[in-house]
Amino acid sequence: MKREKQSEDFDLDCVLHALANPWRRRMVELLSRHPYRTGGLQVALLPAHLSRFAVMQHLKVLEQAGLVVSGRFGRARSNQLNPLPLQKLARWAAQFEGLRPPPLLRFKADSLIFTVRNRKRRKEQGS
């Protein structure tokens, strides 16, 4: 198996780029449960019908970001999740937990909800 990177070695931009794709996020979810061989991961992603090549390309991006550690055991390639980059991302995101949206944003959100409710009422009354 390849050496895992130290926590401070992870580039958050690479991690965020890797997680920007829904298929890669799904792979991270699956790998958080247990390690998978590449073919097993392809089957677990069904009914997506991703080719083995596409799965390998996504794994390569996850590996470059430090999210996946893979190794060969004979002909089989095993992939497992490295949680350290996700932990670093969580620590970074935690600084924004207590923030509240500015009043103007709250007003826009409230007025949008009000507008949607009024449209629904008008449709129901018009039917």
Number of domains: 1
CATH class: Mainly Alpha
Indicate the mean pLDDT. Answer: 85
Order of helices and strands: HHEHHEEHH
**First and last CA, distance:** 64 Å
CATH architecture: Orthogonal Bundle
- Class by helix and strand content? mainly alpha
Briefly note the CATH topology name.
Arc Repressor Mutant, subunit A
Largest sheet, spatial ordering of strands: 1-3-2
**What's the total number of strands?**
3
CATH superfamily: Winged helix-like DNA-binding domain superfamily/Winged helix DNA-binding domain
| Unreliable stretches covering 5 or more consecutive residues | none
List the helices and strands and how they pair.
Elements: H1 12-19, H2 22-33, E1 36-37, H3 38-44, H4 52-64, E2 68-73, E3 76-81, H5 84-94, H6 103-126
Antiparallel strand pairs: 1-3, 2-3
Helix pairs in contact: 1-4
Q: Can you give a write-up of this model?
A:
The protein has 127 residues and is mainly alpha-helical. It has six helices and three strands, in the order ααβααββαα. It has helices spanning 12-19, 22-33, 38-44, 52-64, 84-94, 103-126; strands spanning 36-37, 68-73, 76-81. It has a three-stranded antiparallel beta sheet with strand order 1-3-2. The longest helix has 24 residues, at 103-126.
